[in-house]
Amino acid sequence: MEAVGVAPAPLAAPVKKKLLDLEKPFPAAAASNGAKASPAGKWAMKKKLVGGDAGYVLEDVPHLTDYLPELPTFPNPLQDNPAYSVVKQYFVNPDDTVTQKIVVHKTSARGTHFRRAGPRQRVYFQSDEVNAAIVTCGGLCPGLNTVVRELVCGLYDMYGVASVVGIEGGYKGFYSKNTIPLTPKSVNDIHKRGGTVLGTSRGGHDTAKIVDCLQDRGINQVYIIGGDGTQKGASVIYEEVRRRGLKCSVVGVPKTIDNDIAVIDKSFGFDTAVEEAQRAINAAHVEAESAENGIGVVKLMGRNSESPFYLEGKGGLLEFIERRLKDNGHMVIVVAEGAGQDLIVKSMNFVDTQDASGNKLLLDVGLWLSQKIKDHFKKKPNFPITLKYIDPTYMIRAVKSNASDNVYCTLLAHSALHGAMAGYTGFTVAPVNGRHAYIPFYRITEKQNKVVITDRMWARVLCSTNQPCFLSHEDVENMKHDDDEHHLHNTQLLEGESSPMKNSAKCNGSAAGV
């Protein structure tokens, strides 16, 4: 492949572009997974904002030429790929961007956009130059193996890359274990299995050691698959890579079974998780319906997606359960793992602790709630109940991904490697309003999505499950205040003052009577 010219960092945007706060620092990401400090902490990721007409703002992602301006470019080998011979337009237009907000008024500003994902006409790596590494971190999730498989096969089949290795056991595998050679043959059928063939772990993030490994082994593309904590770690790795001036693209693929990553439409594995959760809920319903005053309690994942509720007194959950049993003779309660933590803490002496990823360790709300229900009805000898508690959380995350998630994982992997080959770095890839885009790390690590319990989606949940709203007037006002702050952040971004946070409902975990 012959080098032709030197291309500047692509910052194309619609007409009358203007660069806004290109060098405006963003607070350095505090890497989760037990990350140790490194000199990169002084190099906070900087925003690349490009302004246009009518309030248009492109939140662009870093590019290798931001700090290595003399890099040569090469023709994209996809143009010679037989699989693409029937495609009318091989490459993404450099001006294509994806809007974050699609519902607008006629007087609305055009708002925030992200760079559209996909293959570019020029690439910054020759095929035989690439030495790629893939790592999976954090908890298990359906689809991990599919993403690994499609990264390997995509690099090999589309770009002719023959050197791809896997990092065993999460972040600590960079400096404590040997790499695993990955080929299309070795990953051929791994998408048919749950878990991850590379292994995973929480913690172990030592930025200096990880980047030393990348440098010593000549790795120039690294694909990091994991949740928001893992992506924070990836951001710090990018910062250190940039500080050292290495030609190495750092790419994130967001993963969480909770589906609570900000900005993006959804995370992979969520469709499979919902499908599997349905089996547990159906089983609980069968158990409840088959017994006198039967109650099925199912705990599902949803760390920060719960709605507040209370047990005792008028309008409380216990009163509602009693009324529902009198009316229907049975009921099912689905509760998010993060629900009711404040109530549990009040009822026992407990000191908050965290896991290796920095996540708060949750108390088992399912067991606690089941016991509270049993205690309540023990005081009513003429009202016997039969309660069954089902906790399928670890069964759900260990299953293989379904067909829908397999397709989604393939698109994520392809978008990620297209971005790396085009020289982009310090980004994560995911769909925004149905279009895959490259998103700066800081946008998905600032904050987690939570269910907005003051919008229509939550109202639909209440209506479809016939459960009451346990929110007090104070709860509702607090939620409205949060929404107002979100709107203010969006307005400030259009003025070049701060970054927004999409705070939309993604999950549906709560104490819900069915």
From TrEMBL:
<dbReference type="InterPro" id="IPR050929">
    <property type="entry name" value="PFKA"/>
</dbReference>
<keyword id="KW-0418">Kinase</keyword>
<comment type="function">
    <text>Catalyzes the phosphorylation of D-fructose 6-phosphate to fructose 1,6-bisphosphate by ATP, the first committing step of glycolysis.</text>
</comment>
<dbReference type="InterPro" id="IPR035966">
    <property type="entry name" value="PKF_sf"/>
</dbReference>
<keyword id="KW-0808">Transferase</keyword>
<feature type="domain" description="Phosphofructokinase">
    <location>
        <begin position="132"/>
        <end position="305"/>
    </location>
</feature>
<keyword id="KW-0460">Magnesium</keyword>
<keyword id="KW-0324">Glycolysis</keyword>
<dbReference type="Pfam" id="PF00365">
    <property type="entry name" value="PFK"/>
</dbReference>
<dbReference type="GO" id="GO:0005737">
    <property type="term" value="C:cytoplasm"/>
</dbReference>
<keyword id="KW-0067">ATP-binding</keyword>
<dbReference type="GO" id="GO:0046872">
    <property type="term" value="F:metal ion binding"/>
</dbReference>
<dbReference type="InterPro" id="IPR022953">
    <property type="entry name" value="ATP_PFK"/>
</dbReference>
<protein>
    <recommendedName>
        <fullName>Phosphofructokinase domain-containing protein</fullName>
    </recommendedName>
</protein>
<dbReference type="GO" id="GO:0006002">
    <property type="term" value="P:fructose 6-phosphate metabolic process"/>
</dbReference>
<dbReference type="GO" id="GO:0005524">
    <property type="term" value="F:ATP binding"/>
</dbReference>
<dbReference type="GO" id="GO:0003872">
    <property type="term" value="F:6-phosphofructokinase activity"/>
</dbReference>
<keyword id="KW-0021">Allosteric enzyme</keyword>
<keyword id="KW-0479">Metal-binding</keyword>
<feature type="region of interest" description="Disordered">
    <location>
        <begin position="492"/>
        <end position="514"/>
    </location>
</feature>
<dbReference type="InterPro" id="IPR000023">
    <property type="entry name" value="Phosphofructokinase_dom"/>
</dbReference>
<keyword id="KW-0547">Nucleotide-binding</keyword>
